[in-house]
Prior knowledge:
The Tol-Pal system is composed of five core proteins: the inner membrane proteins TolA, TolQ and TolR, the periplasmic protein TolB and the outer membrane protein Pal. They form a network linking the inner and outer membranes and the peptidoglycan layer. By secondary structure, the chain is mostly helical.
Amino acid sequence: MQADLSITALILEASIVVQLVMLLLLFFSVAGWAMIFQRRKAIETALQDAYKFEERFWSGVDLARLFQEISARAHNSRGMELLFYAGFKEFARLRNNKDIQRQHILDASYRAMRVAHSREMDKLESNLSLLATIGSISPYVGLFGTVWGIMNAFIGLGSVQQATLAMVAPGIAEALIATAMGLFAAIPAVIAYNRFTNRVEKVDNQYLNFMDEFLAILQRQALNVKAAETRNPAAQEGTV
């Protein structure tokens, strides 16, 4: 009677070790695809938010007014909007303090933006390392299952007088399924990781460029405050 060589039958009849390997690879594949969809949405949202905020920022809106708008929903702020909020908040808090030098005010504003930037980048890069791990180890896990299955197949041949291809074929076939599952889990993870890394780098560059441009604007505002103080030494502290 000819053995059933369908994929389902081979998986069900595989050894316990090979089945465990296949189950682990199935988990890697499901987890990898879940991360891919989740990271794709998060990164694309970050890019769209950055474009929208830049359009609003460079539209000529008064920065103090923009700051007040964001302050009303500060707990929901994210991305470039949060960088602006952190930097301008620190600038507004210190700029009318005559005991603090202008450069120290700018440095404090930039540090506040750097902290917000680091937190936002940590969010964007979340789970990317897991995608890289799945992409790198899945082929080796599948290869382990293949080696184990082939080893068992040849050990089985040692107990028979006459070996035939029909006897060894099911064992080799079930072992090769583990390799195929390892590649199925690894290839999408590697492709997604490379693409997402590139997209995150693009977002990072947008954030850093905005921080530099915004710092230049704050520097001009600080110069204006200094000039006003020079013209009117008795000027009172203003409000944002």
